[in-house]
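Bug #77: duplicate submission created two jobs. Keeping one. Sequence:
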Amino acid sequence: MEKLAFSVREAAEVLGIGQTLAKELVRTGELRSIKVGRRRLVAKVDLESFVEDRREAA
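Kept job's structure:
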Protein backbone atom coordinates (compact mmCIF):
# COMPACT_ATOMS: atom_id res chain seq x y z
CA MET A 1 0.00 0.00 0.00
CA GLU A 2 1.26 3.45 -0.92
CA LYS A 3 1.76 6.06 1.82
CA LEU A 4 -0.80 8.86 1.85
CA ALA A 5 1.07 11.10 4.31
CA PHE A 6 4.64 11.69 5.41
CA SER A 7 6.32 13.05 8.49
CA VAL A 8 7.94 16.45 8.03
CA ARG A 9 11.33 14.70 7.95
CA GLU A 10 10.15 12.31 5.23
CA ALA A 11 8.57 15.18 3.29
CA ALA A 12 11.91 17.01 3.38
CA GLU A 13 13.62 13.92 1.95
CA VAL A 14 11.02 13.58 -0.80
CA LEU A 15 11.41 17.26 -1.73
CA GLY A 16 15.20 17.16 -1.50
CA ILE A 17 15.35 19.96 1.07
CA GLY A 18 16.61 20.18 4.63
CA GLN A 19 14.44 19.33 7.59
CA THR A 20 14.79 22.88 8.96
CA LEU A 21 13.44 24.39 5.74
CA ALA A 22 10.60 21.86 5.64
CA LYS A 23 9.62 22.76 9.21
CA GLU A 24 9.69 26.46 8.32
CA LEU A 25 7.50 25.87 5.26
CA VAL A 26 4.99 23.98 7.43
CA ARG A 27 5.13 26.65 10.15
CA THR A 28 4.40 29.45 7.65
CA GLY A 29 1.69 27.45 5.88
CA GLU A 30 3.50 27.34 2.54
CA LEU A 31 3.54 23.55 2.85
CA ARG A 32 0.18 22.34 4.11
CA SER A 33 0.13 19.79 6.89
CA ILE A 34 -2.29 17.97 9.12
CA LYS A 35 -2.15 17.15 12.81
CA VAL A 36 -2.78 13.53 13.76
CA GLY A 37 -2.56 13.11 17.49
CA ARG A 38 0.78 14.64 18.42
CA ARG A 39 2.27 14.13 14.95
CA ARG A 40 2.44 16.65 12.14
CA LEU A 41 2.03 15.00 8.72
CA VAL A 42 2.21 16.23 5.14
CA ALA A 43 -0.26 14.58 2.78
CA LYS A 44 1.07 13.26 -0.51
CA VAL A 45 -1.36 15.47 -2.43
CA ASP A 46 -0.05 18.52 -0.56
CA LEU A 47 3.54 17.63 -1.51
CA GLU A 48 2.47 17.34 -5.14
CA SER A 49 0.57 20.65 -4.96
CA PHE A 50 3.59 22.36 -3.39
CA VAL A 51 5.84 21.25 -6.24
CA GLU A 52 3.27 22.09 -8.92
CA ASP A 53 2.74 25.58 -7.47
CA ARG A 54 6.49 26.20 -7.59
CA ARG A 55 6.69 24.97 -11.20
CA GLU A 56 3.94 27.37 -12.28
CA ALA A 57 5.62 30.29 -10.49
CA ALA A 58 9.00 29.64 -12.15
